[in-house]
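Example 4.3 (complexes with small molecules)
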Amino acid sequence: MIKTIRDTFLPFALPSISEEAIEEVASVLRSGWVTSGPKVKQFENDFCDYVSSKESIALNSATAGLHLALEAIGLSENNAVITSSVTFTATTEVICYFKAQPILTDVDPIHNVMTPETLLETIEKECTVNGNSLIHKSSGKIVKAIMPVHLAGYTCDMEALIEISRKYNLFVIEDAAHAFPAIHKGKMIGAWGDFTVFSFYATKGITTGEGGMVTTNNSELASRMRVMRLHGINRDTYNRPGWFYEVVDAGFKYNLTDIAAALGIVQLKESPGFWNRREEIALRYNEEFSKLKGMKLPLPDSRGKHSWHLYRIELDPKVAKMGRDSLAIELKDRNIGSSLHFIPIYEHPFYKKNYNFKKKDFPNASKMYDRALSLPLFAGMNNSDVDDVVTAVKELLG
Ligand SMILES: *Cc1c(COP(=O)(O)O)cnc(C)c1O
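Answer. The structure with pyridoxal-5'-phosphate bound is encoded below.
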């Protein structure tokens, strides 16, 4: 077999930082105001305009956003939250912060997201209906919210998920860490659920190094999040002297810095270009790989716009020339990175031990876990990087 090897390692994701972004960050550093201030305010306003939400709350991570959203809806240890079995631990760990019960749904076999069907299946199996509420059978806790995850940037069926949620008095908190910029049925992700939580981690669609944003149309709960992101300090004390503030709860330290927000403002402005390049690469892969046997490709979203955060393939071990593990190793030998999104939550020792999840309840997630791999996809890949991935994958699976 021919073996083409790159000189340098190609990671599966890298941030794209322009000279303009560096200049904007430098000017904040020179300004004397480096923590939360005017740049954060501007980033929040720009983000509201971009996704058409009423409120945007900038934070130092998406994990903080998921946590604050659950705090704002008043989650307690007597509650349960339903989320997807295929996600990063951030989505489920925040439920555990409250000693509440995480309930996991299986995912659909194609896009590996929570669907109306997998949600209803979980409700039927795990819950009893009591008036307008759902009670988790084994813990006796009242289900308070669902947290769908737009995996890889393929959007969940929001209309149907919201309809089910309204029936049972559930808040909808979307994990949109992968879903910027994604459009679902003509409306941007960020304008659909009760809360939408974006991540600006280094590998995400846009980055602030570390950072996150919650969008919502609920101004009352937005102000609760603004209070709780900074020590529980209520600053709505207009007629008081300048030194006066009141602590109204034991809050958190989740604010974004102006240094990070300055980067975010430029990234947001540049994001249409990032997305165009990501789509171009994904479609090129799809075309090149279309004839490879046993390889399932990620399709564009006919209902809207895929964010193309990840390019996730699946290999059928019985049909493809090699399995997922071998492909990952062979790619690494050729200096090409890859990753897996995600090891299902129920596989992790912490969740297994404390919540007694059983693999057999998640047949589609389990199948995905044996087969999925994310290939390099980021806006800064040049054509020769893309060629290298195409050549290697075709060599190995053709
Ligand atoms: C990255 C990620 C998060 C966490 O984002 P942070 O900004 O690092 O807190 C949450 N959920 C998913 C699905 C992610 O990929």
